[in-house]
Amino acid sequence: MTATADLTLNRARLADGRLVSIDIFGGRIAAVRPAGDPVQRGRELDLNGQLVLPGLTDGHVHLDKTLMAMPWRPHRSAPSIRARIDDEKKHRRDNPASLEERGAQMLLETALRLGTTSLRTHVDIDEVTKLDTLKELLELRERWADRVQIQIVAFPQSGVVTCPVAAEYLQEALRMGADFIGGLDPVGIDGDQKGQLDIIFGLAERYGRGLDIHLHDGGEIGLAEIDDIVARTSAAGLEGRTTISHAFALADAAPARLDATATALREAKVSILSSIPGGDRCPPIPKLRELGVDVFFGSDNIRDCWNPSSVIGMIDRAMLATYRFGLRRDEDIAALLDHVTTIPARLAGLGDGAIREGARADLIAFEATHLPQVVVERQVPNVVIARGAIIYC
Length: 393
Ligand SMILES: [Zn+2]
Known about the structure:
- It is built from 13 helices and 16 strands.
- By secondary structure, it is an alpha/beta fold.
- The protein has an eight-stranded parallel β-sheet with strand order 6-7-8-9-10-11-12-13, sandwiched between helices. Strands 3-2-1-4 form a four-stranded mixed β-sheet, with no helix packed on it. Strands 5-14-15-16 form a four-stranded antiparallel β-sheet, with no helix packed on it.
- The chain is globular.
- It starts with 6 loop residues before the first strand and ends with a strand.
- Bound molecules: zinc ion (ZN).
- Residues 60, 62, 122, 214, 245, 300 line the site of zinc ion.
- Zinc ion is lined by residues 60, 62, 122, 214, 245, 300.
């Protein structure tokens, strides 16, 4: 390079063990050079052999649902998803508060501290929130643009067919700047698989957007919905732009059915998002990986009305997968980091997921020599750099 770097990270250890210097210019990686290769430099930071990873991606957040900044609210177990929707609506009506008052900003700060530099958030669009929360979220995204890349999914939390205003608001949400159109259990919530999918795929095609559909429906009903979503994705030419979040039904599929569904998902380039839930509803991530299905990880519920299990950092999320699937070999544990870096980068443009010339300078450094060590020790990064700026050091 000829220009002086804005920042050079010296003695940075890459995942393959090499020690390098990383030059950053204009918020991007300008060069990755062997350590000790002298060039004209600006500001320098000696990482002293710390392991450097690209910034992490949280593929599924609800920045509008967290109550992190509000007084503790005991979790109220509800017997169904519809009951939880009603519980949250009541809470919102009884406790009006801005996104910031509820804790969206606090969640972003905490996630960034833990190394998350890109995320996809869903935002409720229904007769309670209307488009007000989306407006706040678009402003929040603007304020955070130099630190965290945020994709927004217009999420019909109260259903599409059963919430008559939803379709109209969803359309307006896409016009306002939402990146993806969401969906929710076409059978379980709307009782009308065709009705909901006709509307959301219609909007996706009309506005040229991808889809990210919450699917909790289990068993053969859920698997049939997956088949339908896959077929519609191919028919609409939306390969690579559709995500099914949760996809609990995959946990219920017999081996032959799982193989067939995985083949269809892979061929239509429909990705699966998992928060690695407990209980018996977690899709078989290692098997899906083996079958070539793109899976990325997300945090989903962070101190909200939905689930008391709150895990914000994506290194901790990788540990949940390690624990959940009983992984023991270094290469299997290290591979989990693909699901929060390279895979979401490739399939959703979330982060660049790589340390290479031209990539966004979103970098995090750990006191470790090997990738699985970061997960096993559930490390918090010592250094967080976003768009070339040192956020924590
Ligand atoms: Zn969700």
